[in-house]
Every structure is written in structure tokens, then in C-alpha cells.
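User: two proteins, same treatment. go.

Assistant:
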Amino acid sequence: MEKSCSLLIHFDKGTPALANEIKEALEGNDVPAKIDAMKKAVMLLLNGESLPQLFITIIRYVLPSEDHTIQKLLLLYLEIIEKTDSKGRVLPEMILICQNLRNNLQHPNEYLRGVTLRFLCRLNEVDIIEPLIPSIMSNLEHRHPFVRRNAILAVMSIYKLPQGEQLLVDAPEKIENVLTTEQDQPAKRNAFLMLFQCAQERAINYLLTHVDRVSDWGELLQMVVLDLIRKVCRTNKAEKGRYIKIIISLLTAPSAAVTYECAGTLVSLSSAPTAIRAAANTYCQLLQSQSDNNVKLIVLDRLNELKSSHKDIMVDMIMDVLRVLSSPNLDIRRKTLDIVLELITPRNINEVVLTLKKEVVKTQSGELEKNGEYRQMLIQAIHSCAIKFPEVASTVVHLLMDFLGDNNVASAIDVVVFVREIIETNPKLRVSIVTRLLDTFYQIRAARVCSCALWIIGEYCLSLSEVESGIATIKQCLGDLPFYSVSEESEATDSSKKTPQANSITTVSSRRPAILADGTYATQSAASETVFSPATVVQGSLTTGNLRSLLLTGDFFLGAVVACTLTKLILRLEEVQPSKIEVNKATANALLIMVSMLQLGQSSVLPHPIDNDSYDRIVLCIRLLCNTGDEVRQIWLSSCRESFVKMLSDKQLRESVEIKAKAQTSFSQPDDLIDFYHLKSRRGMSQLELEDAVQDDLKHATGEFVKDENDANKLNRVLQLTGFSDPVYAEAFVTVHHYDIVLDVTVINRTKETLQNLCLELATMGDLKLVERPQNYTLAPESSKQIKANIKVSSTETGVIFGNIVYETSNVLERTVVVLNDIHIDIMDYISPAMCSDAAFRTMWAEFEWENKVAVNTVIQDEKEFLDHIIKSTNMKCLTAPSALEDECGFLAANLYAKSAFGEDALVNLSIEKQSDGKLSGYIRIRSKTQGIALSLGDKITLKQKGGS
């Protein structure tokens, strides 16, 4: 079994040093060789070797050495070696060690005294410590502060031993005298810590006696004071009024660590608005004064906790929190925006949006590398603000539309989605948005942004001028027709047959709006050269129309969107244009564009022909323009927008449900005691204490103090580890809390004999790690013992804990082993349902490399029932809108999402079909960034999908 030591040293087990070599080096006079030999001896002892032959050599040749490094290594050696025999008695040779320690405690060198006193803090053998007590106490008055500091720590550790109070009867009194006269701040801190842990009343008396001087104490002592206040107030809540003033005075301390701890202590002790406001102000000041990004992230987490429990107070701090956006770190900015978006109210929305607009303008400078990502975050934040408060949309929508042609495609997509939602929810802005969109449409370079912008143009160009402008804009961005020359194509084909490297070049022109010096618009023509070759993709220059450039790269999905948009505009033109000639002319031009796109898609100038879906869509548009009925007109001009409106309403409904789910609902019992502060005597109570009394009464009344714990759920977590017929019965209560697993194991001796050296040995499989080493216990006949084991979790993965109980009895010479049942750690303990946008889901689905495909195998015959069962079994959130899951069609597809306690994402896509025999078939696909989630979640679904519990 490995031994514990206060120093961890790397040791290569592949090349163990021989004890004889170490012995020879220790007997020599070469100091560096002795140091190296002592290091080897310590490493061997840490790795399980006993080396009994070295003890006398070290006593003879190492103890007399005056070298400080050798003396420190000697103390490490003495810390590791066994000092007692099998019966717990101190070995006789330890008398030599005791004499050496006494000499060191009286040595003229301060360093040797200090490190020896520090070593005594780790000794548990009373027989060794007892002769050293006078020397230890004499060092409390040493002239050097280093010695005094360690002497105080040694007194504290000895006093905390089981027999420590008998060894040092008057230790608290002496330490209190030292605290009164001590000038060295670290030594003073150690003295106060000793009183805090060993004689709490003396520490409290000293603190209350020097209340006015606490703000002048050093940082280390102030931190211990805060620990004392937290401990006292937890045990006796009625005492917190005496300490609140001390905490308030420490909020202005020069140390950032003290102010941070002080704010946390204030929040934990008081819920009064004055206290919460003071803590929030302190956190905001730390955000501005600290340059470390890790500190800012931690402080933002504390502000996020305050936002959850004291939202009304945090609303007033929103502008202070927004100042953190000056940090260049994206994680800090993202966390800041997340906090701010939940604190927006009608009172502060204008200030918040104005700040976000300024930040958007700053991103145009291009000085920082990640300006595009930051701009995308700001656009999403502004989008959320405009949805919650439509009246601010008019102040931001035109600014954001300048970014439709942004090089960062994600930002441009966010802008166009924002514009699409605002134009529906804010009818007053429709005309100005459409006009601005038509003016800036030629700047758009991304196909997805173009598709969404074309949909907006087709749906919201309602007046005659808007319809005509929309058709004209699309024609300008497409350029001159046809998209290629038939003669040029044939020449290119002929020349390629003769010489494979030959290319044929034709010149095409396009037009786009240009702004003249007087501010008016004019049409400017641009020429570009396009290379036609059967072996290469036709490239469109950036100077041509954006739609033309994208079409010439083979994006015929965009071509189908163009055809649909033109069809809607022509159908609407028939309603608003009285002149049939103009309508027929526009229809002919639209048909010419569509036919040209079909010819381009079926020609040989592009390496890939047009896909069937796009071809069918364009052909459908052509047929509609040639022969349109009233029912078809109604579908194209009304049903599309109605579906969009329904989608927005579903989205708002889901968001409202999420907000209600986040709201904490608590209940109080009818017979709960409420202590009305109005009936109390207010004499001697500060305003803060009065506010705190009010808040406590409110919490009692609303049931916030009531813990929602179900005893039945507790019993479900009790696992039987051994059988009823085993001589030792064991069961474990498993508590899972984020990164920690606590096993509370109850061991019962069912025999009539005393079990000696009983040890609970555990091992783990998966990303689990044991924190503590097992200890040996002695168990009396028919008695029980509670043993706790802490296990750290590093990732979301199904893990297994296994082990055994080993013990000895007086009758049997060999050790008896009882094998324990395995404990399976469920992945569901780490996964919680979460929300994300459809775009974010698709992005993560494309990026994540691990996928687990599980075939559907269930006795459930209803699609929705099976979906609900999977959601319940996996503890995930269904992102698909309820309206999309309505009706019976025999098919169902849904996306599920969850986040782990470690911030990992879990994505699930469920696609099922109902067969003719009534059974369900299909697949459940799981994707994640790590293999553990994908495999563990797949195993869980395989186990649960049949409909079992």
C-alpha cells in the first residue's frame, strides 16, 4: 500500500536504486551524493519499500549534517517511516529521533527550528511529541517571526490530537497572549486560526474586543475572521447581527481576495436588499479592477447566482455589468450578455440597446481577430431584446442591416433572421425594412442569407412600387441573360476535344445600383470574364451581381428560391397592377430567367448538373405563371406567411414555458412558524438587521426554507454490497453532486469476533478517481461502522465502482476477503435538459465527430408515446415544436438536446416510421464531442427503449 507524504516526488519505477548503493552514498562525505541518496530513499519508501537497513546509517551519518537540504530531506524521511510496531507502541529507536528533534528545536539557526516545528505538525505519535513540549512552547517567544509562525502551528496541531488537551493544558491562554503582543501578520493570523479552531470563544471575544481595528489587520488575518464569522453564524443565526457590521467594513478592504470573500459571506448570511446591493457593487468593482480573465469569470458566476435569487436588485446593476464587455475575451463577453439579457426591463431596455449598438459599431474597426464572433453574439443579444420589447426594434434594425453582407456568414444569417422576425412582429417597420433591404440586397454574398432575404422580398413586397422594385433588384443581381452563350459552349466543347487544356472565354456584364455624388442612385454596369470549360466550375467575378455569382458556382437551391420569389412577386403584381401589358411583360421576363436557369443547370459548362428537387421546383414555378388558379394563388400568397406566423407563436410559447420552468416554486407547511418582526423590539437593531428580518419572514411564508427532499428517493439510492449470509454486511448510500460522488458505506460485523485491520478497498472503471486512501478499522462483535469514500468525476460517462472488504480475525492467520457488488454510476445523474436554437443544433450536429446509431426496437406502437418515453428515459429536452409533431402521418422526426454537468453537449435525432403491421422502425442517432456520452447514452437508450422502467 502506498504511503502518504506532504511532498510528491516523481519516481521512475523502471530503474529502482539498490539499498546498498544508497547506503554507501550516505556514509560518504560528499554532500551532493548524500542529497541524491536521501531523495532515492524517500522515493523508494513512498513506493512501498521498507528499507530497514538504512535507519541506523541515517542516524549515524545524516543526523549530524548541517546542510539545510539534507535536514529537510531527513524530516521527509522521518515523516514516511513506520514509527510504531504492530501493537501501536512507539519503536525504541525513535528515542534517537526524539533527541535529534529536541536539538533542532534549540538550534541557533532559525531555518532548522522552523522546518522542525513544521514537521511536528504532521506527527501523530504522542510518545514522541511529549518530551518536546517545553522546547515547542519556548519557541513561541523566539525573536524570529518564521520560528514563531511555525511554533503556533505546531501547538495547534498538537492540541487537536486526541490527547492534545492533556499535553497542552494552557495552550489557548498562551496563544491568546501571543496574539495580543504579536506584530508579525502571518504569525498573528496563525494565532487567531489556532483560537478559531481550538478555543472558539476566545477568538470571538478577541474579535469583538477589536471590532474597530479589523479593517487595519492584514489580509491573511481578515480571511480567517471571515471564516470564523461564517462558522459562528451557521451554528447560531441569531448572532449574525453582531458580525454584519464587520463584514460591511471589510467590503472596502484594499485586498481583492478579502473583498471577494466578504461579498460571498454577506450573501450567505443575509438576504436584506442593502446587503445584496453592497455585495453586487463589490463584485462589479472587482470586474473593473481585476485584469485576470479567470477572476472575471468567477465573479460573473457569483453575479449569475445573485441574478437567480435577487433579480430585482440586480436589475439596477445592469449597466455596471455591461462595462465588462470592454474585455477582449469572448467567454467573458458571452457570460456577460447571458446575465444582462435576463435583467432587461422596460426601464433599462433603451440604455442596454444603446450600449449594444455602440459595441456593434466598434466591431467594424477590424482590430481584433474575433470581431466577427463578437458581432454575432451582439446581434443575437439585440435580437432577443427586440423580441421582448418590440418598440426598440426601430432603433437597431437599420443599423444591423448594414451587416447583411458581412464576411462572417454566421453574423449575416443572424441579421437576416432577425429582420425576418421583426418585419412580421412590427408592421410599422415593414415599409422601411423592405426599402432598405432592396437597396442593400446587392451587398449580400452568402447563399443562405440571399435565400432568406429573397423570402422576405417575396412575402412583404405588397405595394406596386415595392413589387416592381423587388423584380428589378432581382433582375439586376442576376445580370444579363442568358447565363452562357450556346456558341461559346460548343466552341469550348470542340476545343476541349482537340486540346484538353483549351478554354473558351466570354464576357458578360451585370448592373447594380451606385450612389452618385449628389446622393442619388444610378445604375452602373460591370463586365467580367467567365471561364467556360467542361472540366472546371464556371466562376463569377465579385463585380457581377451576387445572385449571378452564386448561380454560376452551381447553387441551384438558390436558383429555386429566386424562381419562387419571382413567382410570388408576379402573382402579387397581378393584384396591384391594373395594366395587363406590364403584368405580361414581367411574367415573360420571369419565365425567361427561369428557363435560363434550367438551361444553365442542364448544360455542360458546369461540372454538376441541376439537382432534381431544384429542377422540379423551378418547373412548378413556370407552370404556375402559365396557368394560375385561385386556390394556388391563395397557397403561395397567404399560406407561407401563415406558417411563419405559427412558427413564431410556437417559439414564443416554448420560451414562455422555459421561463415558467426556471421560476422556483416552493411551498410552505401550514404549521410552519413565522416570526413577525413587527412584534419584535427594534431597540439596538440596525436597518440592515430589520431588512434581514423581513426577508426571513418572507422566506418562511413562501416556503423557501423548505427543502424538497423525498425520503423514498433516498431509499432508492441505497445499494446492497454484500449478501445477507456474509460475515460482514455492507450497504452504500450514493450521493452524486456534479463533480463528486460520495459513498456512505455502512459496514456491520455480524460475527461474535473482533475484526481487525478491516479495510474497504475500492477501484473504479471509467473516468472516476478515488480521492482518499482506505484506512484500517477495528470492528467489535456485532457493531457497525460508517465509512465514507469520495470519488471525483472528470467526464460524463457511465462508470463502475467495484471492490472488496478485507479483514483479519484472531483465529484465522490469513486475511479474509468479501467481494462487493458493483456500483454503476448512471449517466443520467450528469445530464440535464437544455435549450438551444435550431441553427446552433445543426452547427453542432455538423461539427461533432462521435455518432452512435441505435436501431429502434420497441413494443410501443404509437410514435408520440415512444418519443415521450425516450425523452423521459434520457432526461433530454425536445427542441421540435409541438405543432410539428401533430397529426398522424406514420412518420416522426424530432431533435433532443441536453447538457452535462461538465458543459458537454448531447444531441439526439429520433427518426421513426410506423410499419404496416403497426410496429415502429427507424433509428436514434446520438452525436457528441466526446465518445463517452455517445456510447453511454446509446447504452441507456438501448436498455430503456423497449418501454421498461
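Protein 2:
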Amino acid sequence: MQYSIFATMRSMNFTEGCKGTQVYALNPNAPTAACGSVGEKCLQHLQDFSVNPVRNKPNRNGQASPNQTASSVGGVENLLPCGLPVIDLLEPQIELCLRPVDFVETLADVYRRTENCPQSEKSKRYIEQCVIFRGSLDPKLFRRSLRSARQHAVEVHEKIVLASWLRFERREDELIGMSAMECCGRNIQCPKACLVHGYDPESVYNPCICSRSPRGDIDDEFSNEVEECSTSDEDGDMSFCIGDAEIRCIRSKIASLSRPFKAMLFGGFIESRREKINFTQNAISAEGMRAAEIFSRTKSVDSFDVSVVLELISLANRFCCDVLKSACDAHLASLVNDIEVAVLLIEYGLEETAYLLVAACLQVFLRELPSSMHTSYAMKLFCSSEGRERLAQVGHASFLLYYFLSQVAMEEDMTSNTTVMLLERMADSAIESWQKQLAYHQLGVVMLERKEFKDSHRWFEAAVEAGHIYSSVGVARSKYKRGHKYSAYKMMNSLMSNYKPAGWMYQERSLYCVGKEKMVDLNSATELDPTLSFPYKYRAVLMVDDNQFGSAISELNKIIRFKVSPDCLELRAWISIALMDYDEALRDIRALLTLDPHYMLFHGKMHGDHLVELLQPLVQQWSQADCWMQLYDRWSCVDDIGSLAVIHHMLANDPGRSLLRFRQSLLLLRLNCQKAAMRSLRLARNYATSEHERLVYEGWILYDTGHREEALAKAEESISAQRSFEAFFLKAYVLADSSLDSDSSMYVIKLLEEALRCPSDGLRKGQALNNLGSVYVDCDKLDLAANCYMNALNIKHTRAHQGLARVYHLKGQRKAAYDEMTKLIEKARNNASAYEKRSEYCDTDMAKRDLSMATQLDPLRTYPYRYRAAALMDDHKEVEAVEELTKAIAFKPDLQLLHLRAAFHDSTGDLASTVRDCEAALCLDPTHVDTIELYKKALELVNEQPK
């Protein structure tokens, strides 16, 4: 392992992660009945307090002084009648996703099976990947697997469910003016393309061929064609008599419709010798039979009324007319375009087993989610066992369908009866082991939330029996809830004896022990998996019990620095209120509400907006101009949470400002809160006052959900409508997100220069200058790059220090580069990346210290682990090098970490481990060239070994 390893690592991108759960703790001794609910009393006391607030400053050394204790504790009692957080009521939430004991081996296994399965099975394997990635820190992995599953889908049923799910991931139902059946422009989500059976993975990203012809023109043209070829009396050689009507037909044409008709008209039956056949008792009208005669010659039903086509499909079923049925099925499916039509026609489809018609109706229901979930018919069909059986008879009851529906239901209300019934249908549809594991585990979690502990225990045990070891946590928790604490403890002990201990195992066992043993387990949980928020919260609340409020906040800061979640922000705000630091408390509540606008504080007793209203009089009031100044200050010092709070304040006064919503989305993406970021983008799009602005926000939505070409098209359309900073910036950003050759780089430079010529604020111009500087560096135009970075710094774009440091380093001015990064460290509130980057510009010992600090501030940054591992490998400490990477992979299975560990295994001759890590890495990114080459080499060596 030579210097090239470090050079390669420094060019790699770094991914940050965040995921949070909502966990509360209240004082169980707080009064709850005397004067209304706890929330109402808390509001009343806050209102009383706001009349004559105490403005004492808290002691910041982590201990309450004797004088402060008396006053502040009294304040807490008045301000927080709910009481301070209590340790005994803290509890980590059991994750809803599958969590393998050996995640790397699971990734490798599903990659192998995906690569080696027949084409008809690939979609199912990608759906399995979706399930595995559902709990990942990076939601893009889930969406990528979802797109791959749609790409390789064969059956119409799979296509409509997957395309609808992709639409739901973008929450297009929240985009004002967007129809559920509106085509996105590509086959992958086109409603019409989804109704075409067959395997054609190369065409899914092609522009869809939606008919642009008015329906009336087609009907007129076809009517003329039908009129020209209608049957005359001379042409017909037989008649069907229905009532008083006589329908003249060509015997051979009718016989060609099916074998029963052929037997009737040319077989041994008496009808074969008659010119007129009485057809009155066959439940078809004269008009319907006349349509059947026309179809026997034209093979089309497009000119008929819906009622006639419904008669034809019934006739086709009775007489086994497959071609007629297919034509009717396809025609009726093409008419389904809204929920009312779908509700009307799906019953006919189910009765007549019309596969395409039911598919089209299902597609409308699914593309209308979540609103369609509240229609009584849809829920009766989807939730009941009888409805599932009816769908199964038509080929439309699948694990995939109920998996999608249940995930939507859980987002709406995890404990509802609808959620339970959909999960039960998902369990009924489960065939493969992983499907059963997921269904049983999620039923266990939901039942636990509903406090139905016996049922929860039963479902968790079923999941364990199906092979999901993580569900043992649910079994233990269910036992604990039923009073069997020691049994739960023994179960976790046994689990840790049988498997390699993981952070979540120690976290769970800590619930069932006390004192030092509990703290040892919590500390072990953090050491093995620093992304688990419960141990930080527990330690913080323990410090609150000891009046160490400052230390409690510092403990929470450790995780909030790299993983922002509503529950941690709530707890920090709670403690800040106890400290009477209302500015900090208000900041955290505003940031929390940006992540989750409907969040309920104090164990669900108070809405966050109410607390904002009550805290606001206790802090300094800002005008809108003050807010802009505050936003610039916080943005320039890389205080993302503070920036979110300021924008939340500004939006309270001006909720229709799409520009602010867009700024909000950028901050949320920087904090890796992608779900909240997408919501802000959708609101920005809905509040846009011009067409060109709306197109830009739609472009960002498409880009952030993996639709790069569509995002470019939106940017170009916006530029055509009006030249603007954001349109040029979007186009440049999307184009730069790939390997750029010299021509492409020059084009991106021109786009960014055009953006800078357009009006914008300093926040965005600073970002554009920073990006322009990066492209100049890549083109080896260092002086131009330095000029861009200096201009960005002049308008307080602090992150430009990093770019300027890079320029100095490339010019050989190592000390100047180091100084620039030191300036960034001093200015930035979130400075883990600055420590990481500064390590490149100092000697080995200082680099190690900087990287150690970077890991301490943000354990999700992977470069420090890779650097340390490579250094150990260069010192021929192979075992220690692998352990360094394994430590990080345990809580963040990252592509670069896996690739480097595979390379280390390869260098030591451990081919089996090399292959496994390569397969796991390729599951994360199947296009990673270096890993593909290493994988092929390792496989060749494995095949050469004697059997």
C-alpha cells in the first residue's frame, strides 16, 4: 500500500447520514388531572411566566450554582409542569426495517443472487434490495433499487406498483396542479407504458410515446372505417336472433372467435345446420351481439360504448373468446383515468377476471396514495381477506402490493387498524423467507406501539423463527412490557453469546440492567455504533438528574453535530428551557418543526408551534431585515441548525416565499435530512410565482430523486422561459455531477458565469463562485480559481476557505493551505470536514490529531478510517488495518470502506473475504469500476484454485 492509496482516497466523496426516532420521557409524578391535561397546564404556566419573565443567565460550567438552583428549579416547576425528562421513561424505538446480524454478508448474498438469477426474477431480487436498504442512512440506495426493480419488471402488476411507488417517493400528490395520471415523460413511470406486458429493461428510460391525438379524431376515423366494412345481408350466411332483432353474421368469422363457437357453428350441434340461431337466453343484447359481429371482422372494440364492451367481455368469458376478451380488457383499461371511473370499473374487472382492467384501476388507486387510502371501497378491497382473494384470482395480490400499501399506511398512522390489516395481508402474501421476516417483524413493532404485548410477542417470535435475529429485540421488549424483565435480560445475554455483539444488542440489554452495568452497556453501544441516539439521550437525562444541565447539552451536541433528529432537538430544547436559555430553546424548536411540522412535544401533549408562540416573547424580537442579517451570519459560520431556525422564523411572517423554502431545502440536504428537504422543495414549487421558477424547483426534485436527464430538461425549459441564476445553476450542477472532460468543463464554466450575471443574493452567489472555483481547479486554472474563492469569501461564503486551501496546496504553498483550513475551523460551527481536510496539509502526527478530531465530531465521515487503515497497512499491520475499517463498516457500510477492505484482503491472499466485500460494495454501487476489476481478478483466482 503506497501513497497512491491516500491520493485515491482524497478524491473520494463523503456521505453524511441522519435518521431519527421520536422518543419522549416525562415525569410520572407530574399532576395530570386537577386542571386539565398536562399540555394545557404547561401552556397556562408558560403564559403566566411570559408576563414577568426572569432573565437570569444560566451557569455554563455544567453545574447549577447554589443561588441559581433555588431560582431555576422554581422556574422549571412553573415553566414545565410536565416535569424534566425522566430516565425510567426513556426507551429506544425498535426499527421497522430488516436489520441483518451480518449486513455485509447479506449485501454480498443478495448481489450474488441478483446477478445469477434469470431475467424474469431480477425485479424480485431488486425488491429484496429495497427492503435491505430501507433502513439505510442513505435513502438514495432505496430509490435506486426501486428504479432497478421497475426497470427489470416483466408483469404489468409489478410495473404499476413500482412506478406508483417511485411517484410516491417524490410525493407528487403534494404538487399543486399535478394529476395522478400525468405522465412524467419516461417509460419508467408512464401510466400507459406500465400496462404493457414484457421485459425490456433498455427502454424504460426512453421518452414515452403517449398518444397526443384527440380521442374524438380517433373515434371518428374508426367509425368511418367500421361503417365502410359493415355486414350487408348478401355477405352474411347466418343470423343470431335476440328477441325481435336479427343480427346477420358471417358464420366462419363468428366461428373464428373461439373453439366453442366453432363447435356450435361447424360441429355436430343442431345450430350448425340452421341459418337462424336463437340467442335470446345468452345474456347479451342485440346491440352487444351486433358489436360481436363487427369485432369478428375488424378485431377492434374501440368504437363501442362502454356498456357494450362490458357485454362483450362477459360474452367472451362465457364462450372462451380469448382475442375478444383481450381487446375488451385493453380498451376498458385505457378508459380508466380517475378514481371515480376506477371504483366503477374495478368490480367488472374482478367479476370478469379482466387482468388489464383491474391493473388500470389499481394503478389509479396507487397513484392517488395516500388520499385514496381513505376511500371506503379501496380499504375494503385492500384490507380484507376476501378482497385479497378476489385480487389474487385476477393475478393482482402480491407481497409487493401490500408492502407498498403498508408502508404508506404506517407513515399515515402506525397504530391504525388499517395499518394492521394491510400488514396482515402482507404476511398472507409472503412466500420467501425475507418476506416473512419483514411482515412478521413489522406486525410485531406495530402491535408493540398499540400496547398489544401478547400479539407483539407472537409476531416477533414468528419473525425470529423465519430467520430475522434482530426481532429478538422485540421478543425481549414484549417480555419486559409484560413484567418479565429478567427473562428479557437473559434473552439478550444469550443473543450476544451466539452472535458477534453489535451496538443495538448492548443498547437493548441496557434496558434490563441497572447502575454501572447499564452505563457500561450504553457506552459499549456508542463505541460500536455512534449513530444510536438513545445512549446519548440517556446520559444527558442522567446529567439533568444531577443538575448538570450544561453537561447534558454537551452530551446531546455530540450526536446532533452529525445526526440531526427531532427527538434529540426536543430534548436539548427541554433542557435549555430548564436553564432559562430561551434563545437556544427557541432555535431548537424551530429547527425541529422544520424537520417535522406536526411534531408534538412533551409526550405528545403540546404542538411545537404553541411552544414557539409562548417562548417568542421571552427573546429579542427581530424584524425581517434583522432575520436576513442573522441568516447571513449563521450561514457564513456554517451553523446549519441556526440557519434553519432563522428561516423558520422568516417563513412564519411570509409563508409564501418560495425562495426561503428553497434555501431551507438546501440546508436540510446539507444535514442529510432528505425527506424534510423534499417537502421544502415541494412547497417551494407550489408557492412559485412564475413558470420559470416552478420549473427550477421541479428540476431539483427530479435531480434529488435520481432523474438526472429529466432535471436537465426542466433547467433548459426554465432558461427558455427566462434566464435566471437558479436555472443556470441547476443545469451546471447537474452536468457537473459526472466525470467531466475538458469540453464539458468549459460548458459548465460558461453556465456558472451566466448564472453569476443574473440577479441573486450573496448566499447563492457565494455557492456559485465556490463551484466555479472547483471547476477551474479541475481544469488546472489555479489563478482563476483563487479569484473565485476570494470573491466568495468577500461575501462571507466561509466554505470557500477549503477551496482556496486546495489552490495553495496545488501551488506548493502548504503552510498557506494549512492556515486557510485553520480559519475555516475557527469560523465554522460544523467543522468536522475542516479538520479532515486540514489533515492533508500538515505532518503525520498533526494529521492524525486532526483526523481523530474529525472522527470525534462526526463518526460518519469515512476518510479518517481509510487514512488510518492505509497507514497501518503501510506499516505491515494488516490485522489492525482491517479492524480499523471493520469498526466503521459495522455502523456505516460504505462503498469506499468496503472496497479498501477488499483490497487489503486481496493483498493478504484472503480471496473469500475479498469476493464478499467486493460483492457487498457492488450491491451499493454496481458501476464502481475499481471494485469490478478487483472482483473479476479475485473470482479468477478462486476458480483457479483446486476443488
